[in-house]
Design goal:
single chain; about 70 residues; about 0% strand
């Protein structure tokens, strides 16, 4: 449910697993990327409100999901 970049997600996983986050590479500026055949927006976040309404339940936050996937 929270908006995270790929870097934020990687840092959260590293931290949860007990690793330092300085090895996580920061995102690259769009101007430094070669253009591809299909344009891609920098922000690819999704709003899951409609799916939550359809399913009748709220999704867990990242920390809850990480604990479920990687229990300590």
């Amino acid at each position: 449910p929270e908006k995270l970049s790929r870097v934020d997600l990687a840092k959260a996983v590293f931290t949860h697993l007990g690793y330092e986050t300085e090895g996580v590479v920061q995102s690259v500026q769009r101007s430094n990327l070669p253009s591809g055949p299909v344009p891609s927006p920098l922000d690819i976040s999704m709003d899951s409100t409609k799916l939550e309404t359809l399913l009748g339940r709220r999704f867990s936050g990242l920390q809850v999901m990480l604990q479920s996937i990687f229990p300590r």
